[in-house]
Amino acid sequence: MGLRSVLDDLAPQFEKGGKLQSLYPLYEAIDTALYTPGKTTAGGSHVRDHLNLKRVMITVWLCAFIPVFVGSYFVGFNANEAMQSMGQTSLDNWRGIFINGLVSYDPASVWDCLVHGLAYFLPLYIVVFVTGILAELWFASKRGHEINEGYFVTSILFTLTLPPSIPLWMAAVGVVFGVVVAKEVFGGTGKNFLNPALTGRAFLYFAYPAQMSGDRVWVAVDGYTKATPLGNAAIGEPYGVDWMQAFLGIMPGSLGETSTLAILIAGVLLCATRIASWRVMAGVFLGMALTASVFNMIPSSNPMFDMPFYWHLVLGGFAFGAVFMATDPVSAAMTNTGRWYYGMLIGFMCVLIRVVNPAFPEGMMLAILFGNLFAPLMDHFVVQSNIKRRLARG
Known about the structure:
Helix content is 63%, strand content 0%. By secondary structure, the protein is mainly alpha-helical. The protein folds into three domains: 9-34, no CATH class; 52-226, no CATH class; 257-394, no CATH class. The longest helix is centred in the N-terminal third of the chain and has 34 residues, at 53-86. The chain is globular.
């Protein structure tokens, strides 16, 4: 008996009237994750496309693994360098139980760096995924709607925005907040106006600032402090890396934001597969470059006024936000013209927050959430403008 037959035999138990009907969303999620639904649209009024929600979300999820592996390597590299400088040869926490026998914590070893970095990413991702999917399952069972592949994307993107050393319980609280407050209370996937992953991260930033910012959280070694290059720039200190090192990702930061190269490779794949809008990405970059160039022309004692656009590109979460967060098809603008305005607003707000607000050197998270709020208004004005133009022609 094949797996398909087993699922078909179990289906009546989960359907309406069955003993387990309250768990139908869980059954349906497993079934559609393993097999393509057998239902198809019929009739001439439907637009047929090879892209559906399942393919869109799975493609984004897979592309996110490019910064996952590259980011994990650099998390391990930074940690191994710190351990070497402190004379540590093994981990004395629970992670060491699993990897002390596998690695020698040599920063020159790709294997040692990758395994050490994954020892932080994998537990964090598992906790985030399980906690968030349980929250979605509870809401789906109460409201009778499906669980879809959207949470695959939310879980991995949320994980990649976190510092590697964040406590696991804190990550669980953050993702539940993002899933419930930013998505489920508005009706689930497709009805949220804020990005759930960024909403969860924003909650953690303001609720637990000591674990989400500062010099102690970016290098995954207890007792070791090192500021990010963006943090150094905000106080007028040397960045600590050259531009190419920052572009490649050889610097401390959140799990997935350090390597602009890895993020751009994923961005090219997302644009080539028509999953993400290149207009949004280009708008974000254009808004950032123009705003940074204007600030560069203004005399000021604030060192952030002098940061050129090409440094804004590779520092902090700018590239990751532009490629993975700003392009969220639900919370972003829907019209082509609106996408340009939406992207430019995010780029403008990111630089504005970084430069003008000395207490908050990283501005990409708040900039995208701000753009999410104005995306529907931009689309409204674009649509109304098109209607007026067509009526004038008629």
